[in-house]
Each structure stands twice: as structure tokens, then as C-alpha cells.
């Protein structure tokens, strides 16, 4: 087994004095797709924010979040992004009055090499052909699904090694949902490790190597995606199987 790309140990997370995550420990290995499922308010988005350094976190003495062997505790969100971790937040926004192309270029703002930027843009537009068709349109004229694609594509422009996707299929038509999941698989095949928060539980568990079930701020179950699909609690609570 290789070393984990990301390791969380005994994470407690807070908004002000209010604790919302308790003693979360998890590992994500290079190249994996790991899903986090759980009801509304369970703390899924907070977990992603904790990785990015966006919420107050505390551990039990040792490092709380370790990425590629380095502790991320106290590291600014900007520095976390520079280390190759990118979050596409829930309901991610794009710049409405800018073209798709300019939104994408902004994703690579820290890249100084123009030729590399053009090559990267070409790669991303190959992955998202719809965005190539729409490249000159302003983002506000895109459909909800196209906008979500643009948000994910823009995140890829920062060349993440580890991509956090918070409910990428939220509010989308089933056909668009399938397309988003296909794209996540392609992104993963290109070597990007993915942490996926998703309410489309069947999709998420089928495509993930492993998954964690978060309820009321606690990890209550974890295991291979396929085996959680057959778990009685998961089936009753998330798949409406009685
Ligand atoms: N900025 C905030 N300030 C205070 N409390 C917050 C804040 N954001 C979230 N919370 C609380 O933290 C808890 C976990 O919220 P979180 O958004 O992480 O849940 P979630 O699992 O992502 O839910 P959903 O499925 O609805 O997106 C909830 O009780 C929520 O009310
Ligand atoms: Mg959320």
C-alpha cells in the first residue's frame, strides 16, 4: 500500500464555539475516488472546508490534516491550493459576465507560462466539448449543468493533484448528472485523486473506490463503495430500500 495522499486524524471542527465534526479520521490514497455521503447538515461540506483550511479545526495533539507527508495545520487556503488541492464548492459560482474561455483562463491565473496555459485549455476543452461550443458565450447564458461543468473545468485549470467536489450534480437533470460523473471518472483516469461529496448515493458509491458515511458530524461507516451499496443501514437510510 502506498502512503496516503491525504490523512485526517482525530479532526474536530467548529463554527465559533459550535462543534460540527467529531473525531474524524480518514485516509485517501493516490489515484483513489473517495465518496462522502450523509444527510443534510451532517458536516460533509465542513469536512471539505477543514481540508482547505477554511474552518477552525482541532486534533488530539498530532497533525490533523497531512497532505503528501506534510502537515496542513495552520497553512492558508491559498497555500493549500498552491500545494495542488482544489475545491469546487457546493453551488460553485462562475463569473457571470465573463466568457467561458476567460473563466477558464482565470483558473490558471498563477501559471506564468502562456504556452502551457493554451495546452491546458485544449486538454480541458477536449474533456468538456460543450464548453468549447460555448467558449465565447458569457457564463450567465449557460444552463445550470453547463455552468457546473465550467466550475469543474476551471478547477482543472489550476492542475490539481487532489480535487474536492462538493455535490457536483446538485440540481441537474439526470442526463447531465451522468455526464458529470463520466467526466469525474475521466479526470480520475488522468491521475487526479478525487474526494466527492454526493447526494446521488448510488452513483457515488458505484464510482468510488471507498466511501465514508457521515452522520451528525461523526463517521458511522466506511468501506469499499460497492460493499456499502449492499450495507443494510446504507440501503435503508440512503437508498429507500426497506
Ligand atoms: N458558516 C456556518 N456557521 C455556523 N454553522 C454552520 C456554518 N456552515 C455550516 N454550519 C452548520 O454546520 C453543520 C454542518 O453543515 P455542513 O454544511 O457541513 O453540512 P452538509 O453535510 O454539507 O449538509 P448539506 O447536505 O445540506 O450540504 C450544520 O449543522 C450547519 O448548520
Ligand atoms: Mg454541504
Please list the strands of the largest sheet in the order they lie side by side: 7-8-9-3-10-11
Q: CATH homologous superfamily name of the largest domain?
A: P-loop containing nucleotide triphosphate hydrolases
Helix and strand element order: EEEHEEEHEHHHHEHEHEEHH
Question: How many β-strands, per DSSP?
Answer: 11
| Radius of gyration based on Cα positions | 18 Å
Walkthrough of the structure:
The protein is of the alpha/beta class. It folds into 2 domains: 1-84 and 165-242, Rossmann fold, CATH 3.40.50; 91-159, no CATH class. The chain is 37% helix and 25% strand. It has 10 helices and 11 strands. It has helices spanning 44-52, 77-82, 100-107, 114-127, 129-133, 144-156, 174-189, 201-207, 225-229, 232-238; strands at residues 6-15, 18-28, 33-37, 56-58, 65-67, 70-71, 85-88, 162-166, 193-197, 210-215, 218-224. A 6-stranded mixed sheet has the order 7-8-9-3-10-11, sandwiched between helices. Strands 1, 2, 4, 5 and 6 form a 5-stranded antiparallel sheet that branches. A hairpin with a 2-residue loop joins β1 (6-15) and β2 (18-28). α3 runs parallel beside α6. The mean pLDDT is 94. Magnesium ion binds next to α1.
